Automatic annotation (TrEMBL):
Official protein name in the record: [histone H3]-lysine(4) N-methyltransferase
InterPro entries for the chain: FYrich_C (IPR003889), FYrich_N (IPR003888), Post-SET_dom (IPR003616), SET_dom (IPR001214), SET_dom_sf (IPR046341)
A Pfam family matched in the record: FYRN
EC number of the protein: 2.1.1.364
Residue span, Post-SET domain: 301-317
GO CC, any one term: nucleoplasm
Broad EC category: transferase
Keyword match Zinc: yes
Domain of life of the source: Eukaryota
Amino acid sequence: MSNFHNETAIFPVGYHANRIYWSMRHSNRRCKYMCYVEEKEGEPLFRVKVVEKGHDDLILTGPTPKAVWEQILEPVSQMRSSTGTLKLFPVYLKGEDLFGLSTSAVTRIIESLPGVEACERYTFRFGRNPLMEWPLAFNPSGSARSEPKAYQAVAGAHQGRHSKSSQYRRMKAEWKSNVYLARSRIQGLGLYAARDIEKCTMVIEYIGTIIRSEVANRKERLYESQNRGVYMFRIDNDYVIDATITGGPARYINHSCAPNCITEVVTVEKENKIIISSCRRIQRGEELSYDYKFDLEDDQHKIPCHCGAMNCRKWMN
């Protein structure tokens, strides 16, 4: 990790971003620059693929974001100066910015990745709590949660020392300090405990759009036709929470046959809420999980389980 960061940015291997920027060949035209962070002999390698209509693709590489983008900025600057268009001042442009690594949304996610604590020179902007307040886009990671016709079920509620409504209000005020989003050890993305969580603590709410079961069936077919992952959670026989488009971070919690959380329905101000609560003490940095309790299916529709628990049932359904 010591080679893959500096004071202002972290360089995760496998990172890819597309930028639309001024062409090196035409003063009044833009083209696509595909930016990649790779690894070569233990050192970061920054690669930019220039894609422009009417020209062969050009591959540029460098040991730093600045080094590779200087190969682009200098020709662009010279082209614009020779044609009398608005001048470009490459000295003021940073390679990290042009790679998109300093963009707030990107930085939040990168700072949540496992192992970033080893980046001693880097100055954290958000810490390990990169969750957004706005709805998250669907997760294209191939998680088992995206399997069709496999809605999550709700376990029975447990009794706490305080009223459910007061616990719910406290959870809504504190959930951002409870969890962070990072790559899962089980599959795709997952949610992790940002602090030690005691048993019978409400951790986070599963939010989304509440729809009728009939509508959920139609939306499921629509999402499948769009090749989207399906994130739905059944409240009861009549209603389902659809988190596919407008869901919150709780939808990234993975299944486990030995979970550390349970789900429960809590009625707050005459509305049913789906709450993820701890069923044992959870240590900081531990991935959150619960039993999806999918209905049993025949062999042709089985969903493999990758939880790795000692008592893993091998199949989620």
